């Protein structure tokens, strides 16, 4: 505040404004659920609004979250997309990499009732699964990713419709593919995540096949991700125009 400089905020929460109402995670504000208490929802939004004098714009990684009508709710705040990060493939054939594997599956995320039921079902069907049941650091998460063959994307609740973009990208960086249960997401990141229809009785058998072919699944997912990232960047570009204008208004030198 004292320097009068502003920052860009990379948004990860699904926050929308429709018909004069605020929606968080697809439900009206104050909706009760076991993922985020209504009071926490309100506090997060209030804290975000308190920071508005210091915010120049919102960045969205790729196309999620959508942040529908955000500029109507917060006038003067632009919402701009930034490209997906690119990274080298992981060579997973070497002994050092495969010797770290201790489990078939891994889930890292806040535990809800729905997630608890899915995890119990997987264990009952003899899948070896690790779940820390607490928040872990980036370093520990990466180490855990390397200790499993597949990374799970389990929605917070049955009606949850989005893939966890950050989880999927983090898995790919470690040389692991992600499998999602019960989602039908058609966003960009869906190109490199295997979505299983759990209403189909064969889904557990499909998951077993995925575990057996985890290495080839990663290679396909990585190739699909890089192709998707390249196409997205080509079509949407990087918001250089906004950064250049920002530099002018903040009286910062720009490189030609």
Report on this model:
The chain has 256 residues and is α/β, with parallel strands linked by helices. It is built from nine helices and eleven strands. It has a five-stranded parallel β-sheet, with helices on both faces. Strands 1-5-6 form a three-stranded parallel β-sheet, with no helix packed on it. A hairpin with a 2-residue loop joins strand 3 (21-24) and strand 4 (27-28). The mean pLDDT is 91.
Name some characteristics of this structure:
256 residues, alpha/beta, five-stranded parallel sheet, three-stranded parallel sheet, 9 helices, 18% strand
Query: How many extended strands?
Result: 11
Give the uncertain stretches in residue-range form: none
What is the overall shape? Answer: globular
Please identify the structural class as seen in this structure.
alpha/beta
- Whole-Å distance between the termini? 29 Å
Q: From the alpha-carbon coordinates, what is the Rg to the nearest angstrom?
A: 20 Å
Order the strands across the largest sheet as they lie in space. Answer: 8-7-9-10-11
Query: What is the chain-wise order of helices and strands?
Result: EEEEHEHEHEHEHEHEEHHH
Largest sheet data: 5 strands, parallel
Task: Name the quaternary structure.
Answer: single chain
| Approximate strand percentage | 15-25%
Tally of contiguous helical segments:
9
Give the proportion of residues in helices.
Answer: 25-40%
Q: Mean pLDDT, as a whole number?
A: 91
